[in-house]
Amino acid sequence: MTSLPPQPLSPLDGRYRAAVAPLADYLSEAGLNRARVEVEVEWIITLADRSLFGTTPLGDDDKTRLRALYVDFGADEIAWLAEKEAVTRHDVKAIEYLVRDRLDSLGLSGLAELTHFACTSEDINSASYALTVHRAVERVWLPALHRVIDALAALADAHRDAPMLSRTHGQPATPTTMGKELAVFVWRLRRVAAQVEGGEYLAKFSGATGTWSAHVAAAPDVDWPEVSRGFIEGLGIGFNPVTTQIESHDWQVELYDRIRHAGGILHNLATDVWTYISLGFFAQIPVAGATGSSTMPHKINPIRFENAEANLEISAGLLQTLSQTLVTSRLQRDLTDSTTQRNIGVALGHSLLALDNLTRGLGEISLSQHVLDADLDANWEVLAEAIQTVVRAEIAAGRSEITDPYALLKDLTRGRRVGAVELAEFVDGLDIGDDAKARLRALTPAGYTGLAARVVDLA
């Protein structure tokens, strides 16, 4: 058997490339290297702006030309780095050589020794990962999450008054509305989204073991912790001043746990909507030209929700592994985080793919109110809760001598189907006031939804 031409091993870079491509700008190897160049360049500018080691601040034109190294980072730089790393066997050292080479071509070779000055690789990496993950989450993942939330919120509002039989433990239960049930997911997801939006993205910039030792040896009179803080915060990320050789990654653990939490809620949404489709509560809108089954032409399979479910599970597994691995580093540094962090894009990619499927799936369903109505009409026994609660209120008000209303309703309804006629006869025979009887006689399963429609507005 002949070998295939070079192929992507991951489906994220093959079948699903279009759905996750925006993440590659930040969380691919090239995206990471572009951020590394950005950190190296901005560090040179920071040192020069402080006139350290005989330098003078760069003019605006020189800063613009220097920043073009990362602003215009592209195919030539990617190829250059691949060739150089094949020799150096060290990715960050290759970045340093790239910056030095470009300084020479820009006529700024006098700044060469400020490249990677007093830095350990993790200074560059921690800042680069903070930048790339922050940008990927803020510019790609969160907008995709909000598209799902917006689609859900629109459906919740549209179906706020659509009565539906609840199922607790899989059994008929107090009616609700479809809108209110979808609003539950809206509220949950908005809360977690706010937590993600409020998260920190931290970097360290304190040398080989977090002590600024080389910095102090070169310039003992400089307040290096404050220089580092100003530099890192100037990049738009937070500063961690107390570290080993590496930034401790706790912010990453917090972030990935929150994204995994969001994924768990989304997984719950996917399985619930799948179940509603199975029950016939939602009909799927046919997509022109699509095939539901290779052998059963009538089928429209809920593939968007199944795909989302599976990808959320893959994402959750990877995110949990990231959290477990990144929280620990032996003594002052080990390399377990290096290869682990290269999978951040894979973890977020599967989550992003799920979000894309959910957004599409939510746009391809329509409510079958007649199915919901039939389900409600077949389960009048769910009004037993209303009846026994009204009876209790009548007892408390001194208008009834009934001693155990719960047992009374239990005997009538438990494990039995009771229709409108039977319940009306039962209500007529109750020892309660006329007003209470009138309210109960007017009650139907479809009308027993309480404040469900108003709950939608609370989400």
TrEMBL record:
Residues 329-449 form the Adenylosuccinate lyase PurB C-terminal domain. The gene is purB. It is an enzyme of class 4 (lyase). Keywords: Lyase, Purine biosynthesis. GO terms for molecular function: lyase activity. It comes from Microbacterium aurantiacum. Residues 61-308 form the Fumarate lyase N-terminal domain. Its EC number is 4.3.2.2. It comes from the Bacteria. Catalyzes two reactions in de novo purine nucleotide biosynthesis. Catalyzes the breakdown of 5-aminoimidazole- (N-succinylocarboxamide) ribotide (SAICAR or 2-[5-amino-1-(5-phospho-beta-D-ribosyl)imidazole-4-carboxamido]succinate) to 5-aminoimidazole-4-carboxamide ribotide (AICAR or 5-amino-1-(5-phospho-beta-D-ribosyl)imidazole-4-carboxamide) and fumarate, and of adenylosuccinate (ADS or N(6)-(1,2-dicarboxyethyl)-AMP) to adenosine monophosphate (AMP) and fumarate. This is Adenylosuccinate lyase. Pathway: Purine metabolism; AMP biosynthesis via de novo pathway; AMP from IMP: step 2/2; Purine metabolism; IMP biosynthesis via de novo pathway; 5-amino-1-(5-phospho-D-ribosyl)imidazole-4-carboxamide from 5-amino-1-(5-phospho-D-ribosyl)imidazole-4-carboxylate: step 2/2.
